[in-house]
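Async update (no meeting this week)

Hi team, since we skipped the sync, here's where things stand on the single-chain job. The sequence we agreed to prioritize is pasted below, unchanged from the tracker. I ran it this morning and attached the output directly underneath so nobody has to dig for it. Comments welcome in thread, and please keep replies under the output.
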Amino acid sequence: MTALQNMWFAFFGIFLMFASAGLSVLSQKVSGVLRILILIISFIFLMVAGLIVLIIVMRGPIAE
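Output:
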């Protein structure tokens, strides 16, 4: 993976974190089954974002 691809991959992880936070806030405004569904999606986004960030950080700097 090139440095540019690594950057876009990291940006996608950051986007998922913001989407997770936004969905968490949205879930406070709804109730019932929809709230649970939104929170589950938010949690999945957060876990995927965490894995992406972990992979990017553990790989270290890319020399080109």
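Quick observations from my side:
The radius of gyration is 15 Å.
The mean pLDDT is 92.
Reply here if anything looks off.
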